[in-house]
Amino acid sequence: MAKYSDEFKRRIVEEYHQGSLGYKLLAKKHGIPSKSVILRWVSAYRTLGPNGLTRKQTQTVYPVHFKKDVLNFMKHTGASLQEAANQFGINNPSLIVSWRLSFERLGLEGLEHKPKGRPSMSKNSHKKQLNKENSQTREQKLERENELLRLEIAYLKKLKAFREDPEGSLEKHKQRWHSSSMKNSD
C-alpha cells in the first residue's frame, strides 16, 4: 500500500470539503487506487481532527480489555471498522481486523501483545526465557487463569443478555459508548 504524507492527506481532505469533487473523482485525479482511502481520511479527519491523518511514530500497545471492548462494540452495535476506529480514537482501522482474526483463532490469548521481530540469538536469552517461565509461582499462574476466566464469564453474560434482548442491549451499549466518547473528547 502506498504511503502518503500527512500534508498530502490534508490537502485531499480540504479539497473534498470544498465540495468540487467527490471521493471517486478525487481518487482518480490524484492517482489514488481506491475512493475508500479518501473516505477513510475524511472520516478520520472529521472524528479525530488533523491527528487522524498523521501516522504514529511509535507503536501504540493497546491493552487486552481495550481490544475486547472495541470488538464487543462492533459486534453489539453493528458498527463498521471505520466507525469503531473513530469511536475509540484509532487512526488505523486495519488493526481491528487483525485483533478480530487473532481473537477468533486464539481467544483472549490472541489479543495479548507480542513483541515484533526475531528473538536474540544469544545463549543467555534462551536461558533467561526459560527462567522467566519457571519463575512464575503457582499462585501467579492461578491468578492469571482466574483473570482470564472472569473475562470469559463477563463476555458470556453480555452475550446471553444480547441474545435474550438484542434491541435493549444494543440501545444500552450505544448509550454507554456515546457517553464514554463524549468524556474522552473533553
Could you explain how this protein is built, in words?
- This protein is mainly α.
- It has two domains: 6-53, no CATH class; 64-185, no CATH class.
- Helix content is 70%, strand content 0%.
- It is built from nine helices and no strands.
- The mean pLDDT is 79.
Produce the secondary structure layout.
Elements: H1 6-18, H2 23-30, H3 35-48, H4 64-77, H5 81-88, H6 94-106, H7 123-135, H8 138-164, H9 166-185
Protein name: Transposase
Family: Belongs to the IS150/IS1296 orfA family.
GO molecular function: sequence-specific DNA binding
The amount of beta strand, in percent, is under 5%
Q: Main sheet?
A: none
Intertermini distance: 34 Å
Provide the structure class.
Answer: mainly alpha
Helical percentage:
55-70%
Count of strand segments: 0
Order of helices and strands: HHHHHHHHH
Organism: Alkalicoccobacillus plakortidis
Protein name: Transposase
Domain Insertion element IS150 protein InsJ-like helix-turn-helix: 8-56, 66-119
Region (Disordered): 111-143, 164-186
